[in-house]
User: What shape does this take?
Amino acid sequence: MERRSFLRGAAAAPLMPMGAQVGERPAIKITDIKWFLVGTGGRNPNQPGGRNWVIVKVETDQGIHGIGEAYSCGPDEATAKVIEDFKSWLVGQDPRNIEYLWALMYNFTRFPGGSVVNAALSGIEHALWDISGKAAGLPVYMLIGGKLREKIRVYQSAGGEAPAQVADNAKALVEKYGYTAVKMSPHMRDSNRLPYNQVTRMAGKRVQAVREALGPDVDIGVDIHAKFFEVNRAIRMAKEIEPFNPMWLEEPIRPENTDAMTKLAEHVNIPLASGECNYTKYEFREILAAQCLDIIQPDICVCGGLLEMKKIAAMAEAHYAVVAPHNPMGPIATVVNVHFAASTPNFKILEYHPDDRSPRKDVLKEPLMVKDGYIPVPNKPGLGIELDEAAIRKFPPRPWRRGFEFREDGSVAFI
Ligand SMILES: [Mg+2]
Assistant: This one.
């Protein structure tokens, strides 16, 4: 064979499908993978856009389909392109061979993926679980260990500028949804431009106001949002808010330097939480081995998917750490997280946005709703949800960026 025709043949050869038949059950083959970008920033094209939800739909030849959600990293059309790229490897495969298909996507990408590749992989993986559950006639959590709790504890973040405003907002959320925990930022607006003494002082006043409004027993998470890279800044802020007994101090410093987080942990008396910017078991291995975090916060839409998050959680369990998943995305992400939480012993609490407003209430025919601070575990096959494709077309995607922040001297800050 001539070299040129050999190479052409290699390029055209389809990936061999893993064995498809399962016992007496018929084979299932993936026939198509679709994506939808759903805009959440309103319909006025002259206004800045909110982030987009990246929804994945995997179709099969047996009339079963699955849905999932990829993380919105910013350049969301790039994530959609990666989903299309992975589709060419997955069509013809049995969607239930999830470890095999994960390895196809992860190993054949060759370079460890960043946020865009891991988001695409994660969204597809959710849909594979949805199909597997529907094919088996079981909720997804029954395929990954079964149910070990009846309801999932959730929290919501409270915003506001003045301390009294944050306190009022937090109290209103607790009264409306029955939360047993809320989260807040210690920062005022433009904190990157303010003197650090003022930032620290106001952080204390903000957390104090929320603690006094909620009483001694509602948990309060405090999220620095990785705005610092100096350990001493985080230590000073921790000392300021420690008297108000926070549930955790989240992303107290940037996520790149585990040694710095270990140093911080030696000086702080608040449980430390982080992990939304980390991907896969490989990155969490280093974090957990350092024993610098009490709570890890992987995001199921970007860490590698549901099974990858189960593996990360198992590693955390062996290190006596708990998991509080990062979950700022759409209603599908919440549902996948609920299946994770239902089946994971060291789950702590889930970040949540109520699905009672547009477009959150429109994407799924029956979104999961919080009741007295908890989401009841669903019992339908698969993920147990149905996408409303007609509704999501009403929310076209828009370009989105998180924002831009500068320090007083004009240098670029972290956001
Ligand atoms: Mg966070």
In short: The first strand starts at residue 30 and ends at 39.
